[in-house]
């Protein structure tokens, strides 16, 4: 039992450090070192206060521990035998290990969209999701800034995937890492997508920092995490999204 607790503590510390390091690096680059040169890429003109950052870090660290526990509980107890977790890459091939990551992200986006819509229900929002929306002008530190109940809901995705598709630990950790990087980008407060992205077919598929920032500032619409398709299908995409994105890109790339 003590070994399990020590292992959980170690993993939790690693996850909290990962959160601080990645969020902190993005914050340091955009909000401090290159603040002036990135001014044209700022989505909202208002400044993020130190009080907001402290609140976001507190809630995010708590959420990190909760989400870590949910995964740890599944993979470190006898429950793991009932999942599709596998340890030998040769059981499914390298091709599946690589493919399982985008498949997992596609499933996560669907899960996230509908969970997000539920959290915006008027009887739930002010009791749970409002914690995240206190960051109406989000920063990289707001990525995991959730109410405890929302952290549980968000953290259940890996346990659910483990009961649906075969996942190797490498795929799980890669999924978590890529998911967090995209989450930080969505909450960055700056649009850093390259100029070519706007004319690429990817623009019609993937979310951007502007996309999720509008959700925080308007409180409704743009519910997707990685992709735009659920918002398009359900007609919940903010109609001003492309206009605002183009406006910011024009400021970034005037010529």
TrEMBL record:
What is an example of a Pfam family matching this protein? FA_hydroxylase
Location of the protein in the cell: Membrane
Major subcellular location class = membrane
Does this entry carry the keyword Cell wall biogenesis/degradation? no
Q: Which InterPro entries match?
A: Fatty_acid_hydroxylase, Sterol_Desaturase_Related
Could you tell me the superkingdom of the organism this chain comes from? Bacteria
One GO BP: lipid biosynthetic process
Write down any Gene Ontology CC term.
membrane
Does this UniProt record's set of keywords contain Transmembrane helix? Answer: yes
Q: Can you tell me where the transmembrane regions are? A: 16-34, 61-81, 93-114, 144-165, 171-190
Give the Fatty acid hydroxylase domain ranges: 103-236
Query: Which UniProt keywords are given for this protein, alphabetically ordered?
Result: Membrane, Transmembrane, Transmembrane helix
Q: Which GO terms describe its molecular function?
A: iron ion binding; oxidoreductase activity
The protein's name? Sterol desaturase
Source species of the chain: Chryseobacterium soli
């Amino acid at each position: 039992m003590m070994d399990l607790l020590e292992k959980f503590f170690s993993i939790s510390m690693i996850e909290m450090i990962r959160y601080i390091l990645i969020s902190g690096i993005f914050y340091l680059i955009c909000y401090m070192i290159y603040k002036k040169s990135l001014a044209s890429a700022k989505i909202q003109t208002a400044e993020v206060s130190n009080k907001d950052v402290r609140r976001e870090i507190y809630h995010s660290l708590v959420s990190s521990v909760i989400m870590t526990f949910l995964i740890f509980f599944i993979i470190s107890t006898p429950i793991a035998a009932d999942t599709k977790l596998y340890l030998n890459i040769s059981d499914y091939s390298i091709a599946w290990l690589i493919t399982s990551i985008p498949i997992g992200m596609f499933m996560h986006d669907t899960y996230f969209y509908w969970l997000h819509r539920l959290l915006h229900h008027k009887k739930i929002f002010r009791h749970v999701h409002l914690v995240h929306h206190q960051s109406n002008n989000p920063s990289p530190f707001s990525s995991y800034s959730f109410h405890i109940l929302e952290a549980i809901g968000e953290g259940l995705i890996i346990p659910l995937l483990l009961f649906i598709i075969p996942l190797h630990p490498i795929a799980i950790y890669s999924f978590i890492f890529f998911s967090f990087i995209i989450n930080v980008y969505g909450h960055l407060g700056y649009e850093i997508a390259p100029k070519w992205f706007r004319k690429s077919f990817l623009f019609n598929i993937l979310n951007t920092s502007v996309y999720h920032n509008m959700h925080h500032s308007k409180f409704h619409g743009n519910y997707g995490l990685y992709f735009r398709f659920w918002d398009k299908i359900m007609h919940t995409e903010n109609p001003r999204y492309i206009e605002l994105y183009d406006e910011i890109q024009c400021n970034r790339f005037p010529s």
